[in-house]
Aspartyl aminopeptidase (Datura stramonium), 483 residues
Amino acid sequence: MESSAVATDLVDFLNASPTAFHAVDESKKRLKSAGYVQIFEREDWDLKAGNKYFFTRNHSTIVAFAIGKKYVAGNGFHIVGAHTDSPCLKLKPVSKVIKSGFLEVGVQTYGGGLWHTWFDRDLTVAGRMIIRNKKDGSESYLHKLVKIEEPIMRIPTLAIHLDRGVNDGFKVNTQSHLLPVLATSIKSELNKPASIDDSIGNGAPNDGSKSSKKINPGGEQHHSLLLQLLAAQAGCEPGDICDFELQACDTQPSIIAGAMKEFVFSGRLDNLCMSFCSLKALIDATSPVNSLEDEVGVRMVALFDHEEVGSNSAQGAGSPVMFDALSRITSTFSPDSKLIQKAIQRSFLVSADMAHALHPNYSDKHEENHQPKFHGGLVIKHNANQRYATNAITSFVFREIAAKHNIPIQDFVVRNDMPCGSTIGPILASGVGIRTVDVGAPQWSMHSIREMCAVDDVKHSYEHFKAFFQDFSQLDGKIAVDI
């Protein structure tokens, strides 16, 4: 029952988070409800020991932290890091495609998705829009999240009669085959509102006066039908949409399923499962009245965007956002610039990203002695070539916390004859210089539009992260390495 309660909360988080923007928005709501105060990177920070704060960057990365009441500048940060993005299909800057009498939506692949799983799914769009707001004769521009709830698109497969060899290998051409169908041209024309200017929609000559402030100049960027749907959802006029970042999304909700109700079926488990577990752990580890009374460090969760494409962006783990947070918090309590180096050496990062569970139909894909299983708890990831940042000290710390609380733990090493993925762990370990362990809950179907993991492992992950926040300060004081 306890495992199910945590997993049910995860399902609610997943269903509220079709995109990285929505995941950050949902995280903000939960943090504010728990007494965390929003601060802004553009402003000065006035922080106090014993208080809780968060900030966002690009509304797709979020950093939350709670300062111990016994914290002094130079003390360490206890961090769980994860990411908010998942492989998906993102709308192109010019998404309007018309072929063979059909309205299609041009998309580009984001990350390394299992693209064949996107066929024959009921799709919609979600993301953020920049909307022009006119009031009292002046203009301002609003950032607004949007999701069209009903299915509006589909990528149909080709009938087997027209591709007899498809079962020998379904090869997807991501440029020509992966376009969602929005409508037929005939129906689109019949249902076009009278307010739509046909001269613009048909691409007729235009002096710019009618479209200079619209996202759809000359009707060439996006289908008017799509803009109408988005405007109706956002409560604005199509002409007030200045720009957007949208992606295709599956409309099937996340659920707890399986004959024994032991699984979570959902998209975006990689890596919203770890984002949720770390966020819930931080909130619950800092909510009791005296939870920060004896804390000497800063408890932190950092959820980054763009991990799936290398983290090299202003809001990715490769940006200065982590160092900026650590240095600004430290400098708020002391002007001594040398204390940040001391703080980093006293800090610890848990890089949390989902792991590959042993698949019964492909057991040969796992190394014989490293086969993570469902219900077995978080997986510590090792790689001698530093694709993961784990070492003996950092894995010991994480194991010791698990042993103290009787939480199961597992290990993973990729086979020598297979390539190894990576995480934000090595990026932050090398970029900031912070001790790091790479971990993740086991799952199947990673990077599919529909993934799955075990309900028990959601609970194990949450409990492990919560124990880390509560116990690390005391345990770290007993470890001697560079002496």
User: Anything to note?
Assistant: Residues 194-213 have pLDDT under 50 and may be disordered.
